[in-house]
Amino acid sequence: MKRVGILTAGGDCPGLNATIRGVAKSLYVEFGEDVEIIGFSDGYRGLIGNDCHLMKQSDFSGILTSGGTILGTARTPYKKMQVIEDDMVDKVSAMKRTYRERKLDCLLTLGGNGTHKTANLLSENGLNVIGLPKTIDNDIYGTDFTFGFHTAVDIATDVIDRVHTTATSHKRVMVVEIMGNKVGWLTLYAGLAGGADIILLPEIPFEFDRVVEAVESRMKGYKPFAIVAVAEGAMDAAEAKMKRKEMLRLREERGETTITNRLAAYIAEKGDFDTRTVVPGHILRGGSPSAYDRMLSTRFGAYAAKLVGREEFGVTVALKNDRIVANKLSSVAGKTKKVDPDSQIVDTARRIGISFGD
Ligand code: F6P
């Protein structure tokens, strides 16, 4: 009998349930009655607290299209994993104990960068772990795409499409802030797909005045409106020179978490344009996964089940040149995949006249 633990950790995103389903269906095809799937509640919190249940085949039915996660999730920061806090719980020992007590053969962890760091830590501690790369940010090293990303691109593109009408009717500048944590993948893809005029990414620090110039030239053109897509992690050139802590401290003093409102105010004042800010926020992570993500989730899930059968652990599944492969957790954990400012996609954007404000 194989006993496979599964958990979803970090921020939720579309495709988690489709991935869980892909894993489960493949495990049942391969092992039939000889497999038990144990679902942990709320990510690593469930593993630490031994909060889990034996799942039934019917639990995996009808979830291909559903958003969020049927297992629940929580953020249990990696940096605190090896720290004993007020509750006096040694988290790593507790997770190892649960794994032993539940007689698991392996543990599947669906999550982003933080989840992968903890997965690697558990692997180094002797547990059999397989990761699956989830996040709308698309920032996991070693995979071309993460599941959840394309759905978020579709939603963010729709937001940009929709603000076009108000921008056109009122001759306004619409500044749209897009999630993505410290990287600009989501903003770059949605900005290109939605026809933004200016795209601001953390990887390409911008100058306020260059942005205003780009807006001005757009407003003087044959269609006087402008769409600015700003990644939530975007920063200007002055901030980019600072230590992150210093930058965050200054932002806190200003009462801001992102640069978006300051930029919008600057565009409105310096350029004297009617400017509005739109922040779709968690809407970008909501609802049903796109067809692309259902496919990718299913492929990732089925491949992870194959790795369970092969007893290949200490790895995470990945998409490389349209093939699903396994990368070592140790080669992925702690690294972030960023947009390369010299990449072909950034060049494409520049070639069609999109400004990066630099
Ligand atoms: O990592 C996914 C993400 O949506 C980021 O884009 C964003 O910065 C963060 O999570 C928001 O986190 P929370 O849901 O905890 O507010």
Provide the residue-averaged pLDDT: 98
- SSE string, helix = H, strand = E? EHEHEHEHEHEHEHEHHHEHEEHH
The bound ligands are: 6-O-phosphono-beta-D-fructofuranose
Oligomeric state of shown chains = single chain
Task: Assign an overall shape.
Answer: elongated
Can you tell me the residue ranges where pLDDT is under 50 for at least 5 consecutive residues?
Answer: none
Distance between the termini: 59 Å
Structural class based on helices, strands and sheet pairing:
alpha/beta
What does this structure look like?
The strands form two sheets. The chain has a seven-stranded mixed sheet with strand order 3-2-1-4-5-10-11, sandwiched between helices. A four-stranded parallel sheet has the order 7-8-6-9, with helices on both faces. It has 358 residues and is an alpha/beta fold. Helix content is 41%, strand content 16%. It is built from 13 helices and eleven strands. Helix 1 (16-31) runs parallel beside helix 11, helix 5 packs across helix 6 (185-194) and helix 7 (208-219) crosses helix 10 (260-271). 6-O-phosphono-beta-D-fructofuranose binds at residues 11, 75, 112, 135-137, 179-181, 232, 285.
